[in-house]
Amino acid sequence: MSAQKVKTKTKTFRLYMVTWNVGDRNAPTDFTELLKLDQEPLPNIYAVGLQEMTGGDDHVYNDWTKHLTEILSDRGYFRLKSVRMQAILLVVFVKREDILSFTHIESEISRAGMGGWWGNKGAVSVRFDVNGVNMIIVNAHLAAHMDNVRERIEDFHTILRTQKFRDKDVDHILDHDYIFFMGDLNFRLQKVTSTYVERAIRYGEYKALMEYDQLLKCMEEDLIFVDFLEGQITFPPTYKFDPGTDKYDTSAKKRIPAYCDRILWHVHEDSFENIELDVKQLSYESHMSYKLSDHKPVSSLFEIQIYSSPPIPLPVRFLHITSSTKWTSNQEEDVHYKFDISPNLEYLPDKWDWIGLYKENFRSIRDQIAYVYIIQGAKMNKDGCSFVTFHNLSLDPGKYRLLYISEKKDTLLGISEVFQVVK
């Protein structure tokens, strides 16, 4: 009789995804309905993918990232990573209380179409490990127009082929345990008239419309998204609207309404012997009240299974920092820490690692108030522990934290308890 495998305890995380072609418009003032901010519990992870952003390549200080960061940081979220390729943006937020679960954070881009030199089509991605399970979120914008099905398929395979990662466990997108893929995929309803589509919309016959959906037909033929899943579509087509209205295209072209904006996923259920990975889709919907562009945003809420805790504790421990610790503004403060070296440790101390001082509700790794590189001032005391000195900082009274950041991919290796700064 063979020994029965012992199952390890798992934890459920919630992931909420939004894809929206925003048509060169600035962010709306109210995200409540789009992000379901009035519903509890809020997810552990938010991933917002945008297409057709306004000009520029900035992924942090653009109007959309700034608004999303302000709104979500006030609700206990931390911006894990953002990445942008011209008009395609992906921003990922995680609950600040879950920050220790996320490691090996990377981003990638893939240019597609026009020989790959322009970058108006293609994809951006953010990948990470969450409690030792690797996961990737991809935001794509594929080739446009009804007849360009082959180009869309080529764009998809270009994205899969060209995105490569430095993590030791994965090389490509499809190597990840959890793969979530969203975007303006631009697949249309073919061999059907606008009159038929609009009548089906009027009577809520969305299932009938899917018989004409290019993406589903290509998936049935294993031309794209092989082994991926998509939830049942129970909402009207999300393209093409007259901007600022709920009216489908009334221009001279009168484009046939279509389901361009989609969210799909794939999971390798048997990646681990002692836990079974699983995705449960809790919602898949459009948000018709948003009228900025000629697309309506689409969202989906998922539950995923992960290990209950990180496989390896963070190696850096801050010493003598407790909830009762008080620093005084404009005074010199020593920060003592110990770097615990273990056989399985991937990140070793480096002279370009740094220790940052953050407010308790910091918004991202780059939100530090002050920092010291290890090469600049780390000293060893008689106990074998290290310390750095923060010199005469002018700080507002309040609650703060210290973070130890590796020079490799800005990986968090240590975080202190919250402490007070007083006058």
From TrEMBL:
Keyword annotations: Hydrolase
EC id: 3.1.3.56
GO cellular component: cytoplasm; plasma membrane; ruffle
Domain of life per record: Eukaryota
Top-tier EC class: hydrolase
SMART domains, sorted: IPPc
GO terms classed as biological process: phosphatidylinositol dephosphorylation
Pfam families given in the database record: Exo_endo_phos2, SKICH
MF terms (GO), sorted A to Z: inositol-polyphosphate 5-phosphatase activity; phosphatidylinositol-4,5-bisphosphate 5-phosphatase activity
Boundaries of every Inositol polyphosphate-related phosphatase domain copy: 11-310
UniProt record similarity statement: Belongs to the inositol 1,4,5-trisphosphate 5-phosphatase type II family.
Entry protein name: Inositol-1,4,5-trisphosphate 5-phosphatase
Higher taxonomy: Eukaryota, Metazoa, Spiralia, Lophotrochozoa, Mollusca
